[in-house]
Design a protein that fits this description.
single chain, mainly alpha, Hypothetical protein af1432, 13 helices, 64% helix, binds fe (ii) ion
Length: 261
């Protein structure tokens, strides 16, 4: 399994690398980043493939520490966009959202404890999909209303799974439970509005949207990171945290003014 993940990321990385003349220190940072990404994706793949809701929490915490460590690099955002998987499997999506949340957390100068909570919640935000029928999750077309109602349960299921694994940090549990809430109250499960949506959930929700837009789906092509941010700014600003979207845009502007995905 690891080989599959590594091969894919290396393939993307090699094509990225051949187009770039980057300094040695960036190459070294990129290698560490890819290693941590592959390891995290492999762990998430194991968890989702096992179908078992009990998992090794310590292993996950270890990945969280490594993600925080590599996300301290100044050039993390363009490096990350350079090799990130464009596929939308739940385990790759979870990994992407964890890295994106870590990048945002660093940019917001979160202290270490807050970073740990945020990245842990981001990595586990879709765990509840373990209890959703795979035929619905993998459906190549848009979902029917009743199917979408089932999918909507995943944020509650995910919170329950974390509690069963001994996670009792309320900020993490709320980050997972509310990651589909939207500022205008159009989200789920409770239709919370504005600042009533916890910060972790607002960050994870935004990274979730960004990754969903920039990965390939059977019913549409993937947006470039630039297109995704434009779309978020123009169409989704009533739903997403304006301040966070602007932080994302600033990060993107600083990314050599180039788009890698
Ligand atoms: Fe989700």
């Amino acid at each position: 399994m690891l080989q599959a993940v590594t091969a894919r990321t290396n393939q993307s990385y090699n094509s990225y690398q051949s187009n770039q003349k980057e300094p040695l220190f960036l190459k070294q940072q990129n290698s560490s980043l890819i290693a941590v990404y592959s390891k995290t994706a492999e762990l998430m793949q194991e968890i989702f493939a096992s179908g078992d809701e009990l998992f090794d929490v310590e292993k996950l915490r270890h990945c969280v520490e490594e993600i925080i460590e590599v996300s301290q690099c100044d050039q993390i955002f363009p490096l990350f966009l350079g090799f990130i998987s464009l596929n939308y499997s739940t385990y790759e999506h979870s990994t992407n959202v964890a890295f994106l949340s870590a990048i945002l957390g660093q940019k917001l100068s979160f202290e270490l404890d807050k970073m740990r909570g945020l990245v842990f919640a981001a990595l586990t935000h879709d765990l509840g999909k373990l209890h959703i029928d795979a035929a619905i999750l993998d459906k190549p077309t848009l979902l029917e209303e009743d199917e979408f109602e089932q999918v909507k349960m995943h944020s509650r299921y995910g919170t329950q799974i974390l509690i069963r694994n001994g996670v009792d940090d309320l900020s993490i549990l709320h980050g997972v439970l509310y990651h589909h809430e939207r500022l205008d109250g159009s989200g789920y499960p409770e239709g919370l509005k504005g600042r009533r949506i916890p910060k972790y959930a607002r960050i994870i929700g935004m990274c979730d949207v960004f990754d969903a837009l920039t990965t390939r789906r059977t019913f549409r092509r993937n947006y470039s990171s630039f297109e995704a941010l434009i779309y978020m700014k123009r169409e989704l600003l009533s739903q997403l945290d304006r301040e966070l979207v602007n932080v994302f845009i600033t990060l993107h502007r600083r990314s050599h003014h180039e788009t890698y995905r």
